[in-house]
Amino acid sequence: MLSVKQRSDYTFRFNKKMGRHGWLRLTPAYSVKLVQELVEETLKDARILEPFSGTATTGLCATESGMISDSLDINPFLVWFGNVKCAHFEENELKKLEQRIEKVNEQLPSFLEADNWAPKIHNIERWWCGHTLPLLCALRASIVEEFGEPSDDQYSSLAWVAFCRLMIETSSADFNHVSMSFKEDVTRYEVNQIKLLFKDIVEAVVDSTKENLLGNAEIFLGDSRTLDTLNGKKYDHVITSPPYPNRMSYIRELRPYMYWTKFLNEKKEAGELDWKAIGGTWGTATSKLKEWAPDGVELPESLLVVCEKILHAESKNADLMARYVHKYFYDMHSHFASLRSLLNAGAKIDYIVGNSSFYGNLVNSEKIFESSLVSLGYKNVSSRIVRKRNSKKELFEFCVTAKWNG
Ligand SMILES: C[S@@+](CC[C@H](N)C(=O)[O-])C[C@H]1O[C@@H](n2cnc3c(N)ncnc32)[C@H](O)[C@@H]1O
């Protein structure tokens, strides 16, 4: 039997450092420290809005500071995950949960010979070897037997969060780059190792829920271009990090989690969801983009100039990329326009966004956001560099800030 290194990152001590923020390695979440600083700037009774929730970093930071926040995401998996991450838990219910987890492990052998459900992930053998995969399927079946499929129940959701973490940690997914890649090898796990890892992860996850959350955060499913899910509510501070115009697909990154939790069943659903997402370019989203045309909304001149340059680059994808950038800023402009009706007079907005480059043409996201905001009547519009992004010298992350005076 191959030995699995003792993973200090599964221990309670490690997780305590990260708390709930460290539950899953998902899309590049933004810096907890940065969000904490922005949250601390705001008055305690301010209502916070996060229109691109992702892994619910903003919601969690706000509730940790005793504040009330609402968040939105287009992706149902992230809405489910964000709500578990920000939930309040009772200690006696958590004790019961740990007993139920023991049951899941005890009954696991009885599922080993069964014909268990497996997710329809393309090239699944790249993720898990033919020995480990059936073990994960059996563990999943045992969790379903005890808890049912993923639901809104916050306690059984913890079991599913732990399963997600186990599934990704036993896979060959590599997180050393901005977007997920694969390690050379897939590791073989034995049933006892799987049981032990699952138990350790549950302990670490449960332990981090004991931190007392002082505020309240809710994550809703919705489209931030229209924001109609939140109709009628008003906010004082928007703290967020929307997608960047860099062709990173959140669905691509979240595939394993979404298939295993059945938030995604077929490949074509991935493309459909990505088309709804701002900056989505996965599967059918790409072919739909080829047909897309703006509908006459007046957009910043600097955007039109850079799109024109991209269009004339020497590449067979030049037209597609020009449309991609155009649509990204068109969608963000629609978002800024809809947002106005949800802001109290004096509200502040903080958007963390990166610039990007297409065929050597720099797309200055922060400047284009600034122009959109000014044209939509926002005041005190400005931006500052937050950090350098990677080895490319021209890529940075910015914080674009503005006020809404009503
Ligand atoms: C950069 S991520 C947010 C990361 C987040 N700040 C965190 O710390 O995890 C952008 C998020 O916007 C979501 N999104 C994209 N288009 C959207 C839309 N039209 N409405 C709502 N959410 C959207 C994506 O699903 C993704 O989760």
Automatic annotation (TrEMBL):
Signal sequence extent: none
PROSITE patterns (alphabetical): N4_MTASE
SUPFAM superfamilies associated with the record: S-adenosyl-L-methionine-dependent methyltransferases
Domain of life: Bacteria
Ribonucleoprotein among keywords: no
EC id: 2.1.1.113
Catalytically driven reaction(s): a 2'-deoxycytidine in DNA + S-adenosyl-L-methionine = an N(4)-methyl-2'-deoxycytidine in DNA + S-adenosyl-L-homocysteine + H(+)
Keywords (A to Z) from UniProt: Coiled coil, Methyltransferase, Restriction system, S-adenosyl-L-methionine, Transferase
Entry coiled-coil feature ranges: 87-114
EC class of the enzyme, as a word: transferase
Keyword Coiled coil listed: yes
Family statement drawn from the similarity comment of this UniProt entry: Belongs to the N(4)/N(6)-methyltransferase family. N(4) subfamily.
Name of the protein this chain belongs to: site-specific DNA-methyltransferase (cytosine-N(4)-specific)
High-level lineage: Bacteria, Pseudomonadati, Pseudomonadota, Gammaproteobacteria, Oceanospirillales
